[in-house]
Amino acid sequence: MNKNQVAGAVKDAAGKVQQKVGEAVNSPEQQAKGIAKQAEGKTQKAAGNVQEAVKDAAKK
């Protein structure tokens, strides 16, 4: 795993928590921020996956 994969997974998890907190306190703004953070994390993790795939392909 590279740092983008790890950081992306952390952002995704933090976004899920933020979204659930927003739901609990009835804050649409916090829910939206949580969803946005999840999307950012998933994108960063996908970029890390591509980096790993390129690195693995270069080894072969």
Q: Give the strand content.
A: under 5%
Which parts are unreliable, with pLDDT below 50 for 5 consecutive residues or more? Answer: none
- Radius of gyration, in Å, reads 15 Å
List the domain count as a whole number.
Answer: 1
Distance between the termini: 18 Å
Biggest sheet architecture: none
**Helical content class:** over 70%
What overall form do the CA principal axes indicate? rod-shaped
Number of helices: 2
Mean pLDDT: 96
Number of E strands: 0
Class from helix and strand fractions: mainly alpha
What is the N-to-C succession of helices and strands? HH
Organism: Comamonas piscis
Biased composition (Low complexity): 1-17
Pfam families: CsbD
Protein name: CsbD family protein
Write a brief structural summary.
90% of the residues lie in helices and 0% in strands. With 60 residues, it is an all-alpha fold. Residues 4-56 form the CsbD-like domain.
Topology:
Layout: H1 3-24, H2 28-59
Characterization of the model:
This protein is an all-alpha fold and about 60 residues long. The chain has two helices and no strands. The longest helix has about 30 residues, at about 30-60. The protein has one domain (about 5-60). Helix 1 packs antiparallel against helix 2 (about 30-60). The model has no long low-confidence stretch (mean pLDDT about 95).
